## 1
Amino acid sequence: EWDWQKEVEQLASADVIVSIQQDDAVILKQMTPHAEVINAPMSAVYQPHTVDEQIEGRCVFIASDIEPNVNGLQWLLEAVWPEVLRANPSTTLHVCGSVCSQFRQTYHNVRFLGRIDDLAPEYGAAEVCLLPLRTGSGLKIKLVEALSHGRACVSTAVGVQGMGQLTDKAVLVADKPEDFAQAMLTVLQHPEKRKTMEAYARTYVVGHLAPETVYQPLVDWIHQHIQQSNPL
């Protein structure tokens, strides 16, 4: 049976421990104070889009069919989406990925596109990317991808785990249905706010998520370890 103590023992035997988000790095360091812990999250390369690609009122959710995504989308469609449509009836939602296979019911102004080969047009058309996750752990790849396309995001606290520094900058965070709906409307109804969030997303990706930035500490450690193991 796997328990906390066994995990600590296994971690302590490693030369280096690599985390994928800062929150995990803090916990791992607490578990193994004498171990080397390096945070190396998912990297991203900024993908530019032209302004005229965006479609007014377009929201996008992209996900696989694992349970947290299905649960989050169900919550979005049943508890949040009606509130958004009441305030802004022309809002549309495109859902992409295998998560679509778990939904048979139709929803007003919602299209289930399933798995598609090229997501760039969907990101390009979006005014806001959604992360309505209520459970889960680790770094959310869908958040990194949305940021890499320079898109404003609305997320629950779970969806932004490990990247909380983006809150109120590139990501609006809300956990209650009415607050999540209002956050979506804030992005959709205030173009200048959205553009500011998009600009921050772009700046953050270039400055903090570029591969050479994200992986350099790990590369440096590997080089140092090789030199120590094979001195001239």
## 2
Amino acid sequence: MKQKAKLLKTKGTYEENRTLVKYLFYALLILLFYPPFFRGLFFQKELMPTHILTAILFFVYFFAIERKRTGNTYTKFEIAFFLLVLMYGIASFIAVNKNLAIQETLKYIHYLLIIFLTKGLINNREKLIKLLITLITAGILVIFIGIGSALETFHYKGAFEGGMMNSTFQYHNAFGAYCLAVLFLAYMVYSDLEGKLRYAIGASTFLFMLGFVLSYSRGAWVLFPPVAFIYYLFVPIKYKKGFIALFIGNIAGLAAVINKFNAVLTATDKSVGWLWMIIGMTVSTMICLLVEKAQKKVKLNEKIYNLIIPIGTLMVPIVGLLAKDKILSFLPADIGQRIQSISFGAETVTERTVFYKDAFAIIRDYPILGTGGGGWSTLYRMYQSYGYNSTQAHNYYLQLWIEIGTLGMAVFGILILIYIYNTYRAYKIFEEPSDKAKITAMFVSVISILLHSTIDFDLSLAAMAIFVWGLVGAQLGMERNIREKDGKFKNFIVYGTLGMTVFFLFMSIMSYMAFDAANQGIKLVQDNQPELGMKKFKQAVRFAPFEPTYAADYANLANVIGKKKQDQQLIEESARYIDMSVKRGKYNYEILINASRFYASNGFIEKALETIDSLEKYHPLDSSTYGMKTHFYLKIAEKYAKDGKIKDSLTCLEKVIAVEKKIDELNEKIRKKVQMNNMVRFVETTPKTQENINKAKELMQNLKSQ
């Protein structure tokens, strides 16, 4: 007999703790609402407090609600995600960068807790709709911040740069993918609601479409047709009609104002842009309502919606290609040029191909368990084909593979397959059209970001990951009464998750305290209180022992104070801390430069030279590496010459002069490895490097002539 289901309304514990559950639910909505507004939670300053809040909310939820449930089990998806977190934890023990590996592990514990919370607290249609409206409302505010920054009504750093809208994510491609994901939630919710809120949601779809276009994200643009096709194909007839009306309205609204709005962005007085935005929203809404009215009057056979229109849309790309020039002529020139530049031969595509090639080189050296979190940003300069700067691999899956190896990637692959299967099964089993529409919209929203992550680093922004895994958790909540019950791993998951959460909360608090202590130390030094500042830096090291910059800051300040006070014990301690910073951050350019200067100024010549050689080893295609190398070796050669150590001085000078040939060899390798375009950077012999080489030649000639 075929299983049928509706969204479950949980009883028992929820009835007994209704007030607490309500407060927990609204706390969860807040936790899912605000992440986009703080630079996408990409930086530790904003991320750490969110870690702490999530851990506290989970503890309250678990001890007040979850542990009192009877017969509660965990899905295969949750088990797979739990194993994914374990893979990050295991990789941390062998990580190339312990600090970043721990921080990345904390992020994935955070996502696991978000999945548990949304699954546990989103237990009926009303709550699910409130969740979706919360995410849409957050999206509307993100769009307004982007538009307001573009029109210079207010300033939000990085929200609009280079003619591209980044909004709060500060990166236009992530913003474009976000607009795409929220747009389809809004399309569905519009058809699910009645009354004034319905029209507000409908009007918001124009804003999402405007932000989507002004993001200039070619990857997101390319994704729109296939994800729109999937959405339309699987939503019930009522939602198909709503999508058609809204989409036609959105296109009409854009057609009416896009040229005018785009022109305003380069005008002196940009305030009129708000008027064009309102006109666009109005046109979009009116056309949508007219289309809906026509749909009610003209009763088309459902086959037209379910079969003819989908087949017809498959012809749209062909028509678009044939009429490309005509269509592009109606668009602003820069948008048209951006569309025309979409090809596999585009420079950004070529650049990403190089990233991916270099990523595979790292994977080959760390195949099983990976490098630990932060592996790409730590190692990529050793493997890069030319001297680009990119702390992200621009492919989430390759970056994941680098960090947790082939075993971890297999776990993630299984996790995604489980998610797709769960979505398919729920869609087949749900009877209510609104349930089918909800699960389709959520799936399309999630999959649009997952697909876009094949060419970018959307999920490196914690706000995007929280959005995605929050929706996945909500889907698990929808499916709670149809999923297969499997209690085999219940105790393992329960106690394992509690242990992870304790670790998560402790490390998050310690990291935040370290960050705060370091900032206080900087302020105290600026206020001419260096000894108090030194104590704060030492606190930061205690709170975050794997963060090399805190140890380096303490060492530098302690060394200065120690010399000033002639405190030999403090000077020796500063040397131990600089050693610690090098040990924890041996791949870090700034750490190596700082340590080289420290060692040289404190008479540790051999250590200074070893550290500079490490700089060349780990940053071989950075032009400034050779400026620093020639500078240090020249200074030490001059000191040796002054001290009468002629042989040692000549050895150092040979190293300086050899840089000239080294740079030529590196550039020749680049020419052979990389397809030439404007983005390829060669190693430069900077004026300072050349000056150092010339001085070395002159000094060598003088020494040899003596």
## 3
Amino acid sequence: MVSVIMITYRHEKFIEQAIIGILNQQCEFEVELIIADDCSPDRTYTIVEKIKNKHINGSWIKYTRHKENKGMNKNFSWASKQCKGEYIAICEGDDYWIDENKLQKQVDFLEKNRSYGMVSGNINLINSEGFEIKNTYYHLPESQTLENGDLFWLLMNKNFIYTLTVCVRKELIIRFTEEAESKNLDYVYDYWFWLYISLVSKIKILKMPLANYRIHNDGVTKKLDFFSRRKDLVKINIIKSSRLYKNKRISKNQRQVLKNVFINYFRNRKISLTSKLKTLPYLLLNVKNII
């Protein structure tokens, strides 16, 4: 079985298309769609119920509307604990899949390649009206750099894993969700998961577009503000936890990546002075290894 997580909040304009893209998947295995509605003050519930009753695969839907707003991270964590599948895929309520064989392709690959923990793919960018827009930022690295599946250092430079395209082994999502909760890491989001997964397994990148990522005023501003502070916190956490700087096999270029992480962290005005002061002793203690 594959469990698809859809976290949603105020997506009534888009959620029907998001759900249909999942229910139209052509699969040789069972699928469940976990829709975690974060107390949306709109018609999301009505739309979901209509689809559930009319679509041939409506029984895949397991919908919950929280009584209080949990926030993105806690909502995702809650949804992941409801999953019964061996694999977890993700699609937020304002995006949608365009390849009806997406899940089958990804599961087939993971079944045959145990050293890989995750498969993701490419995307198209669309606006709020559904029209494709020019892609000036979201693009995959050169093909040859992706082939061996060892993507950690590439991901430390830039996140090119598009959440709406992933299919991950459930044990990895659960493992790192529990770790984030135990350490009370409130800044964790998808990028943190991909970096940790890339440390313990390979990641397959499919070159073809699997989904449409929607850029709209209601979503993009919040997402950019959310990411701008957290991306540097995420990288610092990865460096501390994995003790990368102790690895003598790290190249000069890789050490430069670590150095740049700390520079960007202390330059980031959205990160509190308190957080920076807590990190400073750690940096001073390990400065020789990092630089």
